Structure formats: C-alpha cells, structure tokens
C-alpha cells in the first residue's frame, strides 16, 4: 500500500492507497516542533484507527511546501519503515511540460494538482486549490503547464481581518443564506464567503479569456480544505475533487516507481 502525504503550511493530509483505490485518509496539524518519534506515533495511531497495521505501508510519496520537515520525515520512514519516500521536487517525472521561465520555482502542490487534474479531466483544465494559500493553475490540451495565480487563503484572510481590527470578532466560515448581513458576524461571513466565490469565478473568467478559444472548452476543478464550501457557490466550477492532490501523488509515484 502507498502512503501519500500532502504537507501544507497548516495541515498534513494523508491517505492510504491500495492500487488506485483510496482506502482511508486523515488530517493532522503541521507542526515543525514535533519530532520524528511523535510523527511516527501519529501515523501508527491513524493506521490503527483505520484497521491497518504499521507494516501496511510499503511505499511513500510526499508533496511538501514546508521544506524543514522533509529531512525529518525522510529519516523517519527510512529508520522505522525501511522505505525511501518519493518527495516531489524539480526533476520528478510529471508528464507535463512546465512552460515557465523558472520551472523550479513552482510549488510541488501546484504541480501535483495539475498532474491529477490533467489525468482525470484532460486539457485544457483550470485548477483551484483553496488551502492556506489559494492557488489557480492552468494546463492546456497539450499538457503544457502555463502558470497561474497565488492569493491569500480564506482562513488567513479572515484571521488578518480579526487581528487588524479592534472590534471584529472571530467567526465561523460558512455559506450565508444571503449577502445582506443583519449583524456584524453575518456581514463578515457574507464578505468572506461571497467575496471568495466572486474572486474564484472572476479569476476563472480571466483565465478562460487569456487562453483564447481553448479557454471556452476548459474544465474547472476545485480542491483544498475550503474547496467544497466555496466550489458549490461558484458558477464557473465544474468539478469538486477533495482528493485531487493525494491522487496526484499516487500518479507521480507510479510514474517514478522505476527509479525508486
């Protein structure tokens, strides 16, 4: 079985795959202060909660935007499982053509998402990932990765609003019934939710325009922690795919397996 780890700035999303079947998945907080023993215990506990044993893990694939964790996790899997993980980095075979001036600067999470989206939906495809940061990427019909947009994430934008104002409270991020809020909390929820829905739809429209004739045929897929919440309110989103990044890790492991 393959353990796929998507290491983000806020959460680590993990999944177990048996072939192309997603067996189970879980989340844990990203914490640079934790030791490899603490992470090992968390992984084993999550496996046991899913009815799996420690030695169920035979392969590991990692996408990480938190580089300080990478050496520790490599050491953990090598020491306790005898596995050398695949870490997505420049040089990893993706099957895409990265059409950027500096292809090494693209975050591994964006590449992994693009690989999965192109595999599942073909091209042209536009990918939106609503995590700690909100990212947009585009891949054309030929499998060329064309770049995209990086915006502040929904969660950190809301926290910044609360932190930089004297009287605004923390709120639950949810879908309001209407845009016209009757209380401060409702007004904030409306601004956060409908503001991000509008941003997503607006940027997708711009992407489609810049892609020209091809853009009118582009499929749009959304993922990430807030993907389902925002995606169901967007007119431009065709597919909500919560496991997109994890699926991409599985695909990349298979494509690079011969070199492991």
TrEMBL record:
Protein family membership: Belongs to the type III pantothenate kinase family.
PANTHER family per record: TYPE III PANTOTHENATE KINASE (PTHR34265:SF1)
Protein name: Type III pantothenate kinase
Quaternary structure and interacting proteins, as annotated: Homodimer.
Any GO BP: coenzyme A biosynthetic process
Catalyzed reactions per annotation: (R)-pantothenate + ATP = (R)-4'-phosphopantothenate + ADP + H(+)
Biological role stated in the UniProt entry: Catalyzes the phosphorylation of pantothenate (Pan), the first step in CoA biosynthesis.
Chief location bin: cytoplasm
Enzyme Commission no: 2.7.1.33
Organism of this sequence: Heliophilum fasciatum
Pathway: Cofactor biosynthesis; coenzyme A biosynthesis; CoA from (R)-pantothenate: step 1/5
Residue sites binding substrate per the record: 107-110, 184
Classification via SUPFAM superfamilies: Actin-like ATPase domain
One GO molecular-function entry: ATP binding
Binding site for K(+): 129
A GO term from the CC aspect: cytoplasm
Name of the coding gene: coaX
